[in-house]
Amino acid sequence: MESNVDATDGETVILNCIDPNASSLHEDNEEIVISTVEVSQWDLSSLAHRPIIKIKANRQRLVQQSSYFHGLLCGSFSESCFDSISIHWDMESLLSMLRFLFGCSLDLTSENFLPLYE
């Protein structure tokens, strides 16, 4: 089921996604900015290998769909009042999870099950 929730429908937050496992020798270190508005068009195979990606996302959707983001963006963490937050996660797992939160199907495999579960 595709999501029609636009980042402009509510407050937008920028997720500075940093892959702690990524090689610092990535051939393309150009900053890339994507939006959850276009989540169904994300090319996971090319995005998953980038060390850093900035993602524009609807703050309310993140809070409503994820206890992690609810705690981070509504709780007593200092990030709750920021328009931009840093997240250090495996990039492929993070992108898959965000796609799911914004209405795309989640493809579970033996390779991604544990990282997504964690």
TrEMBL record:
The species this protein was found in: Nicotiana tabacum
Pathway(s) served: Protein modification; protein ubiquitination
Top-rank taxon, per record: Eukaryota
Protein name from the UniProt record: BTB/POZ domain-containing protein FBL11
InterPro entries: SKP1/BTB/POZ_sf
Lineage: Eukaryota, Viridiplantae, Streptophyta, Embryophyta, Tracheophyta
